[in-house]
Specification:
The chain is α/β, with parallel strands linked by helices. 37% of the residues lie in helices and 11% in strands. The strands form 2 sheets. The chain has a 4-stranded parallel sheet. A two-stranded antiparallel sheet has the order 1-4. The longest helix is centred in the first third of the chain and has 16 residues. The chain is globular. It starts with a helix and ends in an 8-residue tail after the last helix.
Length: 214
């Protein structure tokens, strides 16, 4: 099994066909992020066999040039948005060091971290504009598949929409760490000090898996 096969199976379903119609229209008539070819970038970069951690956010960044198909990640050449700054602040506080100061989390993905949002597209300057169009069903089904076919995956659920996915995850087989979203509106409510990065690595070490270089 691989991500390509799993995604293709979803794309045959009725809900996805409706979602696809909506997305196609949106890309033709409005400005949508990320670029169309990057919608599934998280799956392209994170090898299915090597999956260790799932980081779940809300929806992509909604300003130009920020979203790149990996939750929270931004291209190297742009200033870090506030959520990314807060993630880096927490990593520095938790681990003392950070590999991704430029905000590009590609290296996390290639180490086995699946960086996905509950909704994978968004209209320019309109956060949550693609909610309840079908993406939530898609991401639910991805999580269900992971839970069923994998063991010992660490799920980092940040923000209320992500935390709602808790009910899909079998805690006898997997690990869940939850925190408020790292945005400036909520980070101070418990994202800061959550120590999710060191806790994840402790879990991975206990499973004889290579820890993540955050």
């Amino acid at each position: 099994m691989d991500w390509k096969t799993i995604i293709e199976q979803e794309q045959q379903k009725e809900y996805y066909k409706e979602l696809q119609n909506f997305i196609e229209t949106q890309y033709k008539t409005t400005i949508v992020y990320p670029k169309k070819e990057n919608i599934f970038k998280a799956f392209e970069l994170c090898d299915y066999e090597n999956l260790k951690v799932v980081v779940l956010g809300q929806d992509p960044y909604h300003q130009p040039n920020q979203a790149q198909g990996l939750a929270f990640s931004t291209p190297k050449n742009i200033p870090n948005p506030p959520s990314m700054k807060n993630i880096l602040k927490e990593i520095h506080s938790d681990m003392g060091d950070c590999e991704c100061l430029d905000g590009d989390l590609t290296s996390w993905a290639t180490q086995g971290v699946l960086l996905i949002n509950t909704v994978l597209t968004v209209e320019d300057s309109k956060p949550k504009s693609h909610e309840n169009k079908g993406w939530e069903v898609f991401t639910d089904n991805i999580i269900k598949h992971i839970c069923e076919h994998k063991e010992g995956i660490v799920f980092l659920l940040w923000g209320a929409p992500a935390i709602k996915k808790t009910k899909l995850i079998d805690t006898k087989k997997h690990y869940i760490l939850t925190a408020p979203h790292p945005s400036p509106l909520s980070a101070y409510r418990g994202f800061f000090g959550s120590k999710h990065f060191s806790k994840t690595n402790e879990i991975l070490k206990s499973l004889d898996k290579e820890p993540i270089v955050w």
